[in-house]
Every structure is written in structure tokens, then in C-alpha cells.
Specification:
Low-confidence stretches: none
CATH topology of the largest domain: Methyltransferase, Cobalt-precorrin-4 Transmethylase, Domain 2
Structural class: alpha/beta
Number of strands: 10
Order of helices and strands: EHEHEHEHEHEHEHEEHE
Number of domains: 2
Bound molecules: S-adenosylmethionine
Strand content: 15-25%
CATH superfamily of the largest domain: Tetrapyrrole methylase, C-terminal domain
Oligomer: single chain
Length: about 240
Amino acid sequence: MIICIGAGPGDVGYLTQRGAELIRDADVVAGFEAVLNVVRSLIPDTARVISMGYRDQVEQLDKVAVEHHAGKKCVVVFMGDIHFSGFQYLERVERACGHPVESLPGISSAQILASRAKVCFDETTFITFHRRGDLEPFKRHLVHVLQDQRNAIVIPCPWDAARSFMPWHIAKYLIEQGIPASQPVEVWENLTRNEAEWHGTLAECAEREVSDMSIMLIRTMAPMASQIEPPPVPA
Ligand SMILES: C[S@@+](CC[C@H](N)C(=O)[O-])C[C@H]1O[C@@H](n2cnc3c(N)ncnc32)[C@H](O)[C@@H]1O
């Protein structure tokens, strides 16, 4: 048996009760080291821990798959929620196992951000640049989202210089694409741990570096749908 679970945004208090139960009952717990550290206190002494990084994840997931096919109860922990910026890793788990696997949602950094910054999901688009492959379609989508006067919650890409698309790169790109330099933006770091929040304009964001553990909110300047007066009812 194998299940992928969202470990939440960083503080173990945000892990779901079902997720905690599955970890406590597991024979094997696998994941990136930083995510394993979130749930470490729940992993039984008897469990095998399979830790991995970006470079060895395929080989390490093959080891998890062997345990799964041998009948062990395996849990793979994901940062936040699997369903936002987690699917490429989920696909790697499924490739290693040779079949679709079950998943359990977790609380995403996007949900914590929405709660802290009071934004409504209905009026917000979620975009991640923390992904392999061509980022261009996602960049264009972000521009369209803002032109359509929707909020955007954006996960940046912290990888090497060739791919890095961090908040300051995103801000510069948006200004180049014609989004006003005065557009408000927020950057939140280390949500649920050592939180830091910053509010400014795209122009200011373009000049300011932040840590990898950051998430952006670009809030539409249009009124929320709930604040728009309905048209008068004809007499
Ligand atoms: C591969 S994505 C995974 C996102 C995760 N699935 C989620 O739902 O939050 C990792 C990126 O999410 C963002 N992130 C995750 N947790 C965060 C937190 N607690 N505070 C701020 N940003 C966070 C960071 O940009 C980090 O590099």
C-alpha cells in the first residue's frame, strides 16, 4: 500500500489528523529531507525513512516502490498540498510504482497566505513556476490573469540562474509586459514558521531579494465581485 500525503506548510500543527494517523502507522516514510523534518516527531522508530533530494529522487522513489510492492505500508510526504505545485513529484511516484497512487490533501502555503491576506479563492488564480519544463506559457497566463483583474497567488522558481524566476524577476517581467509598476504586491515568507510579510509595488519588488521559501500575492486593483453593487431591478 502506498499513499502520498500533504504535510502542510511547515508547522506540524497544520498536518491533518488523517495524515498524522497514516504516518504513525507506516512501515516506510519517504520524502524530501525538509518535508520529512516537518513530520519527524510522528515517524515510528520501527519505520524505514527514505530521504531524497532533487538529484536522487528517482532512485530513492524506486526503493519506496520496491517496499510498496513487497506489501509494506508506505507514505510519501509532500510539502503543503499535493494539488498545488506537487503534481510533477506525484507523477514521479506513480512512474516508480507503475500505477496511479492514492493521495491525501494537505494545507497548502497558498491557503495560509489566503487566510493571512484575506483573499477569496473564487477570485484568485494559482500559478506555480516551481516546475520543470517551459515556463513561458505560465508567464503569459499570469499576465492574462492580471489583465482580467483577478488576484494571483504565485509560487516562484528558486532553481539555478538559468531557470530562477523569483519575486524580483517576476516583478520585472510583469512591468515589461505592461502591468503598471504601481501594482500592489505582497511577498510572504516561511508561513507558519518564522513568518515575514512584505507589501509594496511591483517596482519596489523588482529591487528586493527574498528567500526561497516565499509566495507572492498580486491583488487585483478591481473591486471584489462581492463589493460590486448589483444593477437596479427594473420597475
Ligand atoms: C514545490 S512548491 C510546493 C508547494 C506546496 N505543494 C504547497 O501547497 O504549498 C515549494 C515552494 O512553495 C512555496 N512554499 C511552500 N511552503 C511555504 C511556506 N510555508 N511559506 C512560504 N512559501 C512556501 C515556496 O516558494 C517553495 O519553494
